Amino acid sequence: MAPHPLRRLAASGMAYQSASLVAGVLALVTLPLYTTHLSEAEFGWAELLLTSIILVSIALRAGLQEALVRHWFHDEDADRRSRLARRVVLVVVAGTTVLGLLVVLLAAPIARVLLADGHPAGPVRAAALGLWAFTNLEVANALLRAQEARRTYLLASLSNVALTVGSTVVLVVVLGGGASEYLLGNYAASTVVLVGVWASQRRLLLGARGPAPEGAEVRMAPLLRFGLPTVVPELAVFLLNVVDRAWLMGSSGAAAAGVYAAAVKLATLTIVVARAFQAAWPPLAYDLSDEEAPKAYAQVVRAYVLVLGWMVVGLTLLRHQIVDVLIGDEFDHGAVAGALPWLALGWAMWGLTWVFTTIAGRHHATGRTLPAALLGLVVNIALLAVLVPSLEATGAAIALVGAYVVALGASHLRTRRLMLVPFEWGRLAAAVAALVVLGAGLDWVAAPDGAGGIALRLAGCAVAPLLLVLVGAVRPAEARVALRAVGSRLPGR
């Protein structure tokens, strides 16, 4: 009997989330070091380049990693799978190598355009290595996800975390480096891990050599027909995270962009879960039969909203304490705390975009989500123009949430004819309403500091699950199953 979709998703997600959780914890632990040794401006420069690397990488991959995952499940023949993996890896390696060299050669003009404060070209040259390593590692990870090679994925991810943190601390904290060293610390480690993943997959990547038998050729055209239509929607969705930083950099300066980047770092808890969902969901979504998929999609969405909603409430209520502990004195603590809840909510909503992407992908209609993504981008820019002049980083964070609300609504309208998902709208609405009232209400009533205020905020975080049961968002039977599942994993059980 096949495992329940939620259990299978949790099993895959835990493999991906475990390393991400460790990375998130270490990122939070080391954040005071970075925000002490880097100025708001340097931190803003570095984080803008980090997000720009991801943005360019999306275009450079041409959707091939998603095409790899989708086509992997079309054919179980080992030779054809080997040829598929090797072709995708080699194409991406070639493209990233050429573009990386061009970035190194054109680093100075790129720095003048991208870094509004006229920062030298060193960080851009470091970003060239980041672009090469990140893009190829994303494809390598997609290959591991297609095979559901959770142990290898976990080992590679944990190694990446350890090497990244160690090298970045040495370069920035011990040796006193700046934005360039911050970037190098992140991506030199990724390069080492990438080579390790390729070595672990050498039998697959080197297998099935020689001329392909008739019918076993791997043609790029079908892969690109599937992958390319996913690129523009994904670019438009992720561009929301880059436009905010670039807008702040241009209108309010690098310091405001640094505040925004620090708040994003503090939203790590929601980002970790959203990215784990992004990694674990497509293989399951594409492997479900047409009969079981609609119900599974509805169950997954409700579970995601409940878990991520609770996390956003926690970050909202405890944001002042989190900022005071983890952000250096060089940063504006009030501004960081103001942006944090909105960014946590925005990143949580970003994870949900993958539900509609896979609905379109199942039906090879990967361009369906493009209008929704572009509409979200237009809304984001309009809100940035209105909100940033007075609210700066917080205004940019609110604009991000508004954009995702519009993009998700439009994505649902664009894909509902492809697959009719029985979303439980009443229970979803009850969950959202209860969490909003709890988070916003307590944040307004409870003092941001002092023993009484902190105790009340902690109590609010603790009672959120009970409130969700009381309003009907979670059935009592579901709560008992969840409690038994958690209890069975406690030490001594």
Describe this structure in words.
The chain is mainly α. The chain has one domain (5-423). It has 20 helices and no strands. The protein has helices at 5-37, 40-61, 64-72, 78-105, 107-114, 122-146, 150-174, 179-200, 202-206, 220-251, 254-266, 268-287, 293-317, 319-326, 333-362, 370-391, 393-415, 425-445, 451-470, 476-488. It starts with a helix and ends in a 5-residue tail after the last helix.
How many distinct helices?
A: 20
How many domains is the backbone divided into? 1
Mean pLDDT, nearest integer? 80
Q: What value does the Rg take, in angstroms? A: 22 Å
Q: Classify the beta-strand content into a percent band.
A: under 5%
Roughly how much helix do the residues carry, as a percent range? over 70%
Largest sheet: none
Structural category is mainly alpha
Number of strands: 0
Order of helices and strands: HHHHHHHHHHHHHHHHHHHH
Q: Which ranges are low-confidence, i.e. pLDDT below 50, for 5 or more consecutive residues?
A: 488-493
Instruction: Categorize the overall geometry.
Output: globular
End-to-end Cα distance: 26 Å
